[in-house]
Write a structure and sequence with these properties.
The complex is a heterodimer of chains A (about 70) and B (about 350). Chain A is mostly helical and about 70 residues long. Chain A has 3 helices and no strands. In chain A, about 55% of the residues lie in helices and about 0% in strands. The termini of chain A are far apart. Chain B has a domain of about 220 residues: YVTN repeat-like/Quinoprotein amine dehydrogenase (Methylamine Dehydrogenase, Chain H), CATH 2.130.10.10. Chain B is mainly β and about 350 residues long. Classes of the chains: A mainly alpha (about 70), B mainly beta (about 350).
Chain lengths: ~70, ~350
């Protein structure tokens, strides 16, 4: 019966909300600090941020020099 | 009071409890914290390669390693590209041309795809005779396949228009776990760097974090005002980035369980189709319906660059594992590699 299946569905929703309400939450100041720290620590290794020189860029077609 | 009414009241009260608990840890905002940080300088990426070969709209692209990527088009083909040379390593004809997603296994041994056929088809790239064949067809979803991602050569997670995500055993073709809870089509998924959890974005405007092993939905994030089309983990695994039809992207922090920042601009009025963070997470590259890709400073929420060059919607984007380049795929049938 659709009535009782609605109740079952609603019970699941309530159960899930109860679970989500009970999780531990860290302070935003700490979370923000860690996000920023990660960005800073990895900035120099981020090629899209630092730029890629043509000599190390695997997508740059190399000009080939040859002795004639 | 009827039982249903009682349950509804309890649900509302729990939602209020969650809102209050999130506020209680909001001792500072991300904006406050980074107030002293400078915005990154203008990021100007150039198209280094254009991958030509598809005959119709490209719907998905996924990097296998930092050189090989697989793309899916509604011309009914999966193409595996060597992005350094632009050569096509494999051109795989599909049974169904209505493909919406593709994925490359971390091992490089397989690719997968699916779409309006409601199935996830797995292809073995390393077959003995050199031909690429369908290895398994994972069928059980009752709606379209919107996204798929391999955990390893024997496990893959799919998201579907039937509002569920599923973890599959590829060998047996069976569903190991069904992740149900979304109230709208699941549009996109992302696997955490540690492979213990995954996130899904859906047409119910929420993103959910799931525990892969016990099937539990651990956290739900709202705030978007329309369908979430794209989702990805911040590289340290502690935050989630979403892109929506409401023209914004949002960053949700997992440990403080809340939205920290929204990436939007009054000049942008079209939906976000795809997104990918750069290696350090400082840049977020997001593809939009207006044919462009915007580059955001993830901490300062300012636009620091634009990738323009496609003649139609940017439908997919991916950054290489080594962070060296990003690839955009478009309805104009081309893929472009930028750095």
């Amino acid at each position: 019966m659709s009535g009782s299946s609605n109740i079952v569905a609603m019970k699941k929703i309530v159960q899930q909300l109860r679970f989500e309400a009970n999780i531990n939450r860290v302070k935003v100041s700490q979370a923000a600090a860690e996000l920023q720290q990660f960005c800073i620590q990895n900035a120099l290794q981020d090629p899209l941020l630092t730029g890629v020189s043509s000599s190390t860029n695997p997508f740059r077609t190399q000009k080939v020099c040859s002795f004639l | 009071m009827g039982e249903m009414e009682q349950l509804r009241k309890e649900a509302e009260s729990l939602k209020d409890e969650i809102t209050a608990a999130r506020k209680a840890v909001q001792d500072l905002t991300l904006q406050d914290h980074v107030a002293g940080t400078a915005v990154v300088g203008r990021v100007q990426l150039k198209t280094r390669k254009t991958l030509r070969g598809h005959l119709s709209k490209i719907y998905a692209v996924h990097w296998g390693d930092s050189k090989l990527c697989v793309s899916a088009s509604q011309d009914g083909k999966l193409i595996v590209w060597d992005s350094y040379t632009t050569n096509k390593v494999h051109a795989i004809p599909l049974k169904s041309s209505w493909v919406m997603t593709c994925a490359y296994a971390p091992s490089g041994n397989m690719v997968a795809c699916g779409g309006l056929d409601n199935m996830c088809s797995i292809y073995n790239l390393k077959g003995k005779d050199g031909n690429v064949k369908v290895m398994r067809e994972l069928a059980a979803h009752t709606g379209y396949l919107s996204c798929c991602r391999f955990l390893n050569d024997n496990e893959i997670i799919t998201s579907s228009g039937d509002c569920t995500c599923v973890l599959w055993d590829i060998e047996t073709g069976s569903q190991k776990t069904v992740f149900a809870g979304h109230l709208g089509d699941c549009m996109s998924l992302g696997v955490a760097p540690d492979f213990n959890t995954f996130i899904s974005g859906a047409c119910d405007f929420t993103a959910k974090l799931w525990d892969i092993r016990d099937g539990q939905c651990r956290q739900t994030f709202g705030g978007h005002e329309s369908d979430i089309n794209a989702i990805g983990f911040f590289p340290n695994g502690n935050a989630v980035i979403t892109g929506s039809d409401d023209a914004s992207c949002k960053l949700y922090d997992l440990r403080s369980d809340q939205e920290l920042i929204t990436y939007q601009d009054s000049g942008i009025m079209c939906g976000v189709t795809s997104l990918a963070p750069s290696l350090s997470g400082r840049l977020i590259l997001a593809g939009y319906d207006d044919f462009n890709c915007n580059i955001w400073d993830s901490l300062k929420a300012e636009r620091v660059g634009v990738l323009s060059g496609h003649d139609n919607r940017v439908s997919c984007i991916g950054v290489t594992p080594d962070g060296m380049a990003c690839c955009t795929g478009s309805w104009d049938s081309f893929l472009k590699i930028w750095n």
